[in-house]
């Protein structure tokens, strides 16, 4: 079976934008089982020598009775369990958010290969300050990306390449 790569991160960090970006550029695209799951979208991506399945953990609906933290935790933990490889997105507009910490710790504890990315890194003047802020938390490897503009995509996949 192809390795499963999960895209994790808080709501609005750009997970779905990244999912579509990785699917959209010169890849052979297969959407797996469309409509089977409401909460997660799967696709098979082939790019040069790499082939993997990708899961977008978006689509969670936040109702008033669902504290944000709990919903994030549930989707993140499920994806963490089923995935072989992990991409964790931070948001350059927000900086390191305390809500990131629990998932980051679980990713570390899982021992699964992971890459951390600071998405929305499309304002160069702030980028170096932000990257320093994230490095403080010891997340590594850490890559600035812009899913919207397709920046840093090769650098993002490079740490996972040995497994793809
Ligand atoms: P998700 O909730 O994590 O799936 O986030 P989405 O992919 O739905 O994106 C949330 C918002 O962030 C949308 O308005 C996107 O257009 C925007 N966004 C995503 N990636 C980028 C990026 O690289 N740069 C900028 N400036 N905005 C982005
Ligand atoms: Mg989404």
TrEMBL record:
Superkingdom, natural source: Bacteria
Keyword terms of this UniProt record: GTP-binding, Nucleotide-binding, Repeat, Ribosome biogenesis
Coiled coil: none
Binding-site list for GTP 1: 9-16, 56-60, 119-122
A GO MF term: GTP binding
Entry keyword annotation includes DNA repair: no
GO terms of biological process kind: ribosome biogenesis
Function comment: GTPase that plays an essential role in the late steps of ribosome biogenesis.
Subunit structure: Associates with the 50S ribosomal subunit.
Similarity comment text for this entry: Belongs to the TRAFAC class TrmE-Era-EngA-EngB-Septin-like GTPase superfamily. EngA (Der) GTPase family.
Protein name from the UniProt record: GTPase Der
Species per Swiss-Prot/TrEMBL record: Leptospirillum ferrodiazotrophum
Residues included from the entire protein: 10 to 173 of 468
């Amino acid at each position: 079976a192809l390795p499963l790569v999960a895209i994790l991160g808080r709501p609005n960090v750009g997970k779905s934008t990244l999912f579509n970006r990785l699917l959209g550029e010169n890849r052979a695209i297969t959407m797996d089982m469309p409509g089977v799951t409401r909460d997660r979208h799967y696709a098979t991506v082939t790019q040069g020598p790499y082939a993997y399945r990708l899961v977008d953990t978006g689509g969670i609906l936040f109702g008033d009775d669902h504290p944000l933290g709990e919903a994030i935790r549930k989707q993140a933990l499920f994806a963490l369990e089923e995935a072989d490889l992990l991409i964790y997105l931070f948001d350059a507009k927000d900086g390191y958010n305390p809500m990131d910490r629990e998932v980051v710790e679980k990713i570390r504890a899982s021992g699964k290969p992971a890459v951390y990315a600071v998405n929305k890194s499309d304002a160069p003047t702030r980028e170096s300050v932000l990257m320093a802020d994230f490095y403080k938390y010891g997340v590594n490897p850490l890559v600035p990306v812009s899913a919207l503009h397709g920046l840093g995509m090769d650098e993002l996949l490079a740490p996972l390449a040995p497994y793809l």
